[in-house]
Amino acid sequence: MNTGRTPMRPFARCKSGGIWRLAYLGLTGLLPMPAFAAATVAGIPSTPAATKIALPDLTGETVHMLWVLGLVLGTIYALSWLLKRTQGRGRSGLRALRSVEALSVGARERVVLIQVGERQMIIGVAPGNVRLLSVLDDPIAAPMAKTPPAFSETLQRILRRGAGR
């Protein structure tokens, strides 16, 4: 344990500190590995010719691997986007339970108006807790959701705005 009075010397007790020091530096990435390998081969001194190692050309394999990785990540992103866009569509008329409106009243608390068949209920939702607050006798008319404009209309509006500049 170092108390701060003396500097730490991790290799002070090693008899052959030179090899262990090189091994430590090589494992921590502070010493290039070819130089470490050349310096430790049977005590032969390192020469520039001994440190040159012919490495295979992996450019084609690397490009292929990155292309396939991009393809897989792109597919995952596209499927998640498609799932998010289509979630809840197609069965809206057949659903017996639906959330009409929600209001956040705290960091993780909400008041939700749900409709079950023809009845509407107000419930309180908190982490680990859901409570019925009230059952409404007269249902509240659900606000009509404004349908977003078609993509082509939005694109035309953006292009017209950009052309006007």
Helical coverage, percent range: 25-40%
Order of helices and strands: HHHHEEEEH
Strand order of the largest sheet: 1-2-3-4
- Structural class, judged by helices and strands? alpha+beta
Number of helices: 5
Average residue-wise pLDDT? 76
Q: In angstroms, what is the radius of gyration?
A: 34 Å
- Strand runs, count: 4
Largest sheet features: 4 strands, antiparallel
Present the secondary structure layout:
Blueprint: H1 17-27, H2 33-39, H3 48-51, H4 59-86, E1 97-104, E2 110-116, E3 119-126, E4 129-136, H5 151-163
Antiparallel strand pairs: 1-2, 2-3, 3-4
Please characterize this protein's 3D structure.
The protein is α+β, with helices and mostly antiparallel strands. Among the domains are: 1-51, no CATH class; 97-136. It is 38% helix and 19% strand. The protein is built from five helices and four strands; from the N terminus they run H-H-H-H-E-E-E-E-H. It has helices spanning 17-27, 33-39, 48-51, 59-86, 151-163; strands at 97-104, 110-116, 119-126, 129-136. The chain has a four-stranded antiparallel sheet, with no helix packed on it. A hairpin with a 2-residue loop joins strand 3 and strand 4. It is extended and about 85 Å long. The N and C termini lie far apart (70 Å).
